[in-house]
Amino acid sequence: MDGTKNTGYDNSLDDVERGGGDDDEPDETPRTITEPTEIVCAEMKAYNERRMKSDQFYHEFMCLPTGSHGKHSYSSMKVNVSKNRFASILAFDHSRVKLHTDHQNESDYINANYIDASIQAYLSKYSNIFINEKN
């Protein structure tokens, strides 16, 4: 093994060699990447400019996994669907934030998840959606 893995983009400081074809079309040629390397702060601007010119940021973004990576049954419940601002962004069941309510017939659902970090715990959510005065 040479320490590289195929992720679809090149992590070198050199410009990406494009696979030919129309410049308006994204290059679908697989690339090889080495593990992240250190970049001297003074070289960061030039590094980012080269990556922007060669569409490397685009290719990196396109390599990110998509779709659901966990259960989100509470987000999909009919009573909670209207609380989801975007149909494709749902709270995971295992780490969802549960609201404390005064009434048993009120839903404890909000489209938000706790994000565990080694130093702190974070609460991540999108903007508020006011359905009625209770929300």
Automatic annotation (TrEMBL):
Matching InterPro entries: Prot-tyrosine_phosphatase-like, Protein-Tyr_Phosphatase, PTP_cat
Annotated segments matching region Disordered: 1-37
Gene3D superfamilies named in the record: Protein tyrosine phosphatase superfamily
Pfam families: Y_phosphatase
Positions of the Tyrosine-protein phosphatase domain: 57-116
GO function term, MF aspect, one: protein tyrosine phosphatase activity
Composition-biased stretches (Polar residues): 1-10
Top-level lineage group: Eukaryota
UniProt-recorded name of the protein: Tyrosine-protein phosphatase domain-containing protein
Organism field: Patella caerulea (Rayed Mediterranean limpet)
